[in-house]
Sequence to fold (294 residues):
Amino acid sequence: MASSLRSLVNDDSRYQKSFQIFLERSSEHQCLRDFIHNKLPAILASIGDGKSHLNIIGVGSGAGEIDLEMLSELHKKHPEVTVDNEVVEPSCQQINNYKVLVSQKPDLDYVNFHWNTMTASEFEEHWKAEKITKKVDFIHMIQMLYYVKDPEATVRFFQSLLGKNGKLLIILVSGESGWGRLWRTYKTELCNPEISQCVTTGDIKSFLDSKGMSYQSFELPSQMDITECFTEGDEKGELLLDFLTEVLDFSNTASPELRAGVLEMLRHPDCSVESNGKVIFNNNLEAIILDQLS
Ligand code: SAH
Fold:
C-alpha cells in the first residue's frame, strides 16, 4: 500500500458508513440470503450428529443480520436443539447493533449468545489460554478473512475446532469478481500489508488444493451499482470509493494518477458492465465449505 495512504479499517466510524452504502448499493445481502435459504439448509441438516445441543461460532458477524438468518434455517432443520452461539466481532458498534437485533426477535429462546468483542486472533488466544476443549458444529466467517494477517492460519485454527460432522463456511469475493481484477492490478498500491485485505476465494482454494484438502464451493452472483463513484465530490460516491479501495478518503489522499487509474479500471469491462447510464460492478461472492480435519 502506498505509504501516503491510510487504511479504511483504521477508522471504524467511516468504515461502518462506507459499508452501509455498499449494502444499499449492492445485492450483497440478497445474494447471501439466497444462498442461506437455498443451499445452506442441506448443509445445516447434516451437522450435529443427532445431538440435542449445538455449538456455533460466528467470526466477523457485523450487525448479525446474516447470522440470524442462518440461525433460523438451522432451527428449521433442528427444531428441538438448543444452541450456544459465540459471536466474535471486534467492533463495539456492530456488537451493539447485533444485540439490538436479537432483542427485537421474539423467537430466539433456543439460542444462548456469548459476545466476544475481539478479533479472530484474540479469540484464538482466548480459546487456547482457557484450554477450551468443546467441539464446534458450525463455524462461519462471512466477508471477514480480509481483516486477518494470515487467512490460512485462521482457517486452520477454526477448522481444528470442528467436531464430528462439523462444517466451516467461508464466504469471500470470488477471484473472478471485479474485486479480484482490481486487486490483481492494484495490489501494491491499495492493499494494506498488515492484513491480507486482497484475499479472494481463488487464494483460499489454491492453498486448500495445494494441501489436497477437499471442499464444496458455490458461486453467488452479486452486483454493485458504483455509478456515483464517477461524480467527483458526491458524498456517497466517495464513501463507496473508500469501500472499494479500502483506503480512507481515497479521492483526497491518492495521487491523481492512482485515482484516475482506479476509476478507469472500475468501469473496465473486466470489472463492470455499463447499461442505462449505470455502472454495475461485478460483486460475485463464493462460498467454500470445509469439513472437520481428518
Ligand atoms: N459478516 C457480516 C459482516 C461483514 S463485514 C456480513 O456479511 O454482513 C466484516 C466484519 O468483520 C466487520 O463487522 C468487522 O468489524 C469485522 N472484523 C474486522 N476485523 C476483524 C478481525 N480481525 N477478526 C474478526 N472480525 C473482524
Observations:
- The chain is about 45% helix and 20% strand.
- Residues 222 and 284 are 5 Å apart (CA to CA).
